Structures are given as C-alpha cells and as structure tokens.
Records
---
Amino acid sequence: MGVLSGLKQAVQQVAKRPGPRILTVARAGRLTPNMIRVVFAGPALDGFPEGREGANCKLLIPEPGETRDAFAARLSAGPAPVKRTYTVRAYDAARQELSIDFVAHGDEGPASRWASHAQPGDFLGFAGPSTPKLSHFEADWYLVAADPSALPVAAAALEAMPRDAKGVAIFEITAPEDRQEIDMPAGIEAHWLVHPDPHSASTAQEDLIRSLDWPAGRVQTCIAGESGVIRALRAFLAQEKALPRKDTYISGYWKIGLVEDEHQKVKRAEG
C-alpha cells in the first residue's frame, strides 16, 4: 500500500468513527465497599455493539455542576473534558443497559468523584468500546490476575471462557468484603488476596504465581493492574516461562503515585 493510499484509508477510518455518546445514569450503587457499579440506559445506547465485555472505553467526565448542554458543547468545540480509561463490565442488549465498575477512591480522582456521587439522570461522555482483550480461548490452562482496577476485565474474561476451562484466577482486593460473585468455570481455582493499602507496593500476586505448579500445554493469560506488579510478572512470563506474546495479555493500568495522564506518558516512553 502506498503512502497516499494508506493515509487516505486512515482518514476514512477516522471519519467513520462515531463521536462520543452522552450516556445517562439509570442507577448507581456500591457493588462492594470499594467498588461502585454505574448502570447507564437510554437511546444514546442505540447501536451499541454486543460482545464487548472486557473491552476498553474512554469516559469523559463532566465538571461538577456542569449542564448537559454545556458539556455537549465542550465535546464538539472544546476544551476537552477530563478523559479516563475504563472497562465495559456488561451490556444487556435486551434492556439496553451498560454497566461500568469504578474503584471507589472517594474524591481522589475525577472519575471516582463522579461515580461516588452519581444519581439517576446524571451523565457523562463515552467513547468506544474497543475489542475484548481475550476473546479466542484456545489454551489448555489459563492464568488470570487482577487488582481492583482490573477486576472488570478479569471477570469479563472468566465469564466468557468455555465452561470446561481450567486454570487459576488471582484477585488482589482491598478488604475481604470486596470479593465479588463471578460466573467463572468450575475448573478455575480462585484466590482472593487482601492488600489493604493499594498505594503501597505488593508482591503477593507474583509470589503466588511463582509458587504454582506450572502445567504442561498451552497457557493463555489475562493479567492487569499496577505497573510495578505488571513489570515483574511480564519478565517472569516472558523470560522464565517463555510464553509467546500472542498468548500473553498483560497490561499496566496504573502506577503508584501517578495519575492516568502521567502513567500513559511513562508507558509510551517505555514502549
């Protein structure tokens, strides 16, 4: 493909990409003490694609007290709202309801602040979704690991697996009460690790993964969370277990001490 034709195709793809939706809250509440679930509904979800549980999306956060009209004007003309990356937890096409889970940080960040105060009728912007991170289940054994930020992607992957899937799922949560009901296959062995201070470094997931009896056969992973944990696990999987990249979804979703914009700059710099 020539440079000009490639550029033309890229421009056409951008032109076809729909603009952000403005979603309306149907209900919101605590799923667990440290997790908030917000359910959106309404005609803005017309045409929302099915089968995107576990996919990334961008949430555009209105300012406190901002009207819907003023927010809509900013989406089209700027200045751009604060943007944060989240995961599609569930979409019920029959009821036309979209669920997004938020880690509850109080008023620490704009998305947590918005979710903590969300009421029916409130709104935000939504761009996406992408495609799920793990959608082809072809392994003999699966390794899933997540901290609270990645619980939605891990849960979505587990719920999409074949019912005869085997493997291990590791969830590092803030309190015992943060355990969730996840419809995972019976052959998945679940471990819930409690780490009360997410802003201090933890090696609990790595220690447990290193202690596992590594199975024979093909292994696929779905692992995400704090970047320090992810860096150590990525090295372990690539160097010590020699897992091919195509079977290894592993991603840093955040980094201790950095907000998302700063973390994204670090990820880009590290390649």
---
Amino acid sequence: MRAAIQNSVGGPDVLVIANRPDPTPKASEVLVRVKAAGINPVDGAVRAGYYPLLGEPPFILGWDISGTVEALGAGVSGFRVGDEVFGMPRFPKQAAAYAELTAVPADEIVLKPKGAGHLEAGALPLAGLTAWQGLVRHGGLKSGQRVLIHAAAGGVGHLAVQIAKAHGAYVVATASPAKLDFVRNLGADEVIDYTKGDFTDQVRDIDLVLEPLGGEHAERSLKVLKRGGVLVSLLNVSDATRGRASAQGIRVERMSVVPDREGLLELAKLIDAKKLAVHVAKSFPLDQAGAAHAFLATKPVGKVVLSV
C-alpha cells in the first residue's frame, strides 16, 4: 500500500509517500480501505515534534478515517466486507490514517452516515467527537441553556455550533470578521466579532463555554459564566483559573477527545437528520499531504481532508 510517512519531525515537507506492507487485521480488528482521512491541528503538532504522541519517527499520521471494510479479523461481528465505515480509532496511539489501508479496532468505528460522502465523513470524527464530548458528556448540555462557543468557524467550532443547536441551546459564537456570516448560517443566535472589543463586555449569563484557546482566554471566559456554569477547555487550565472558578461556583472540565462508538453513532444520526453538516474547506490527494498541512496552518473555515 501507499502511505504518507515521515522519517523526521519538521515542517510539512517531511511528509513523503512510501510503499509499506499491507496491514493484516488481528482479532477484533477490521481492515479498512481508506477513502478519506481528515487532518486536524494535532496532526501538525505531532508532525512538528511539539506533541510527541507517537514517539520518534518514522510513523504514519492521522486518526480520522472514512472508507470501506476490506477484511475482518477473528471474532468481529456487525460488519461485512464492503460496508462503508468511519471513525477515530486508537487516538492518541498510531492509527495510520494517511494510508490506503489501515487495521483498526472494530469497536472504534461505525457505519458511515448515508447523508455524508467519504470526504465529509472522513473530516468528522476527531473534531465532531471533540465537540460532542465537550458539550454533551463533559458539559452536560441541556435544552434551553445559553452556550458560548469560541473559534466557531474552525473544525471543532463549526460542528459544536450545530450540535448545540440540535440539542436546543441558545448559541453565542465568536469568530473573525471574514467568518461571521459563515457562523450565522450555521444557526448561531448571536455572533461576536472578537476583533471588536472584549467578548466579556458583550455576553452574560452563559451556562456552558467551549474553550479551545486556553490560557488568559480561558480565564476571561469565567467572567461570562453564571454560578453553576461549566467551562470545558480543550487545553490545560491553570490552578489559579481553577481556583477562581471554584470561588465563583463554576465547574471546570479539561477534556481530551477519546475514541467513542456512542458518540460516532450520535454524530451519524445528526448527519442523517440533516441537523449537522461538515464543511470541507479543501481536499488534497494523499501525495499532497504536506500541502494539506500547510493549508491547514492558514486556519481555513471548517476542515481539511486527504482524498485517498
């Protein structure tokens, strides 16, 4: 099989195409022929050596996959050869999604939603699960709550807006000037241009904040939360911020996305109910993985995907 591998850490140009032996599914695994592989910011951080999840190179990046079942390992039920599937297997261990074939745990993938093509399904898992787990599992999202979503035009953010709306929330979202209309069209009830003043002067009485930026931004987000509210952060939160949150009666949840079959099924239901759509900013062929990483660094609207 062909794969985009890296033999050293560095810039996007370290991603090169190489031939590798076809993987063989072990017991409880499924061999998937990859049709699309989503690219996420964590991919770039691992590639550059800032976030050494996979140890020293060589390795194959990628966790988002959409494709077809090629073969079944011993003991696998519920899938047939030819089924269209998607998922975020093995995170944070190597899933080797930037390849034509990958063997993955059967309980970490599900049938692809009929309402999405492979590009959209391949873009969905990591960002979608981050949004769903953050809002629903960690945040305890309920209908009627007021939710603030930062960076709402990004990979996680644009999905979070739609998931929150599908759960009956009133959504306030922040975005840059060029992306305001995009976020409005997602269904956000209020959209704040974060370049025009401090968001803490423009919003109040929030029940739940989804916070992807961390640091001082997380600290400021406490100001808009009501007592009993929840700050869900995708990055580390300082002890000082946690202390201030506790004093204000605010719960802080630091989350890291994990493989989640139930979450994937919920995302697929929302796709098929037309309550969730994945915006693919651009797709690249597998042999342009480096160019795809460079494009992601420009912070496009939505997701970037490899078409395998």
---
Amino acid sequence: MRNGIVLFTSDRGIAPAALARAAEERGFDTLYVPEHTHIPVRRDAAHPTGGDELPDDRYLRTLDPWVSLATAAAVTTRIGLSTAVALPVESDPITLAKTIATLDHLSGGRVTIGAGFGWNTDELSDHHVPAAKRRTVLKEYLEAMRALWTEEEAAYDGEFVSFGPSWAYPKPPQGRVPVIIGAGGGPKTMKWIAAHADGWMTTPIETDIAEKAALLRKEWAEAGRDGAPDVRVLVAKKPAPEDFADWAAAEAGELIWGVPDADEATVYAYLDKLAGRLDLS
C-alpha cells in the first residue's frame, strides 16, 4: 500500500510547501489538504461526528487547497497532490477546471481530486447549492470539467452547468484527472462512485471497510467499469493489527496519515517517526 499524509491546513503552523518537500524526502506518496471556503456563524448542519459544535477552529482558518498544492508542486518533483476533501460545487466549474488543469500541467500530471458532497449545507447554501441536490450538482460539475479537459471543443448542457462549444487549455497530462469521493460508504454512495468517480476515500469514523469496499467493487462491475476502484483509507487512530488486516482485505491502495498543524520542527520530527514506523525509504 502507498502512504499519504493529510494536513488540516490553517494560517498557523507549517506551510504546505515545507510539508510537501519534507514528506517527499521521507518517501511519502501523496499530500492531501482540505477545503472550506468559509463557515457561516449560524449553523444548522451537524458535523459528521454528530456534534453540534465544530471540533476544531481550523475549519474557520482553512487555506485554499489549489493555491496550497501549487506551492507544494513548485518545490517537489514526485509526490502526488490531492485533497481530503475539496468541495468542487463551491467553485465555478469552468474556472475550477482551468485551475486543476493548470496545476496538473505544471506538476507533470500529479493531481488527484479527493471530493466531498459537502456535509456543511449552511456553507453550500451560500454558494447557491441546494442541499437536496448536491450530488447532482457534483455529478454535473465533474462531467463538465471532464469535457473541458478532454475535448477539443467542449460543451455541456445540464441543470446546474451549461456552456456552448468552447476551447480550453491546458489539457491535463493525465487526461481524465482521477476523482476519489470522500464520504460514508453506504449503498447510495457506492453506486454513485461506480457511476461517476474513480474511487472511494473513507471517512475518519468509517468501520467495516473491507465489507464496504466489496460492495463498491460489486457496483463497479455492474456499472461495466474496467479495472478496479481506487480505495484510500483515512487513518484516524493508532491502528491495531486487525485494522491493517481490514485494509488489506479492502484492497486499499493508499493509507492516509494525519500530521499535526504545528511548527516545522514538530512536524519534521513526527514525519521521521511515522516514516520509520512504516519502513519508508
């Protein structure tokens, strides 16, 4: 399995570029950063953990993911650049397609999109995204962006995205930039991923991962997809041997380890310890 790291970025602590360079030097495979454009003070949406309050004030202080990854791309050559998770429906899809294609072009094809549907419906509402239709909005955004990335004269006509024949460059070196959906692994989500995405990223509170990954592979086959879905596990606690067994049974391709949003010396020491424990070289 590959090993990635995720930093809950903020305007405090280590900068994404410094972390990316250090992680690449220590043998990690992918850097992930999150996205929240803003957090409305009045909140009706419960946090995924079920709490009424946000568990961390970094939700209010999150850096822009694509700017963060661009700074990381500039100081690295190998490490993958991804999000855990981005919220594409909170951006204009034509502009976002250009941003991601540019990042993929300048980084030499290192971008993967970890995308969420958006648990914070208060946040989505300010972006004029109907909560009940956020999966439809994301589907259309991804379809429209893929058209812009892969077609000489791209056009799209949907309920939430519409544009006539257009030229858009650069094209991502990868062609179709992979999209991994970070969401709870229920039947509805697995069917959605099989139809519209390239893989699944677990939530921090996910259980029975092998069983859910098996459901995804079943939906994948029934959708007529080639190959296999990309399964990535967000490690949210100190794992036990049975956890590694579950992840292996899930055929996980990557484990994603959290790092502290702290000063450089603290983070480098943490990375050294983690890389040693994982026997990276």
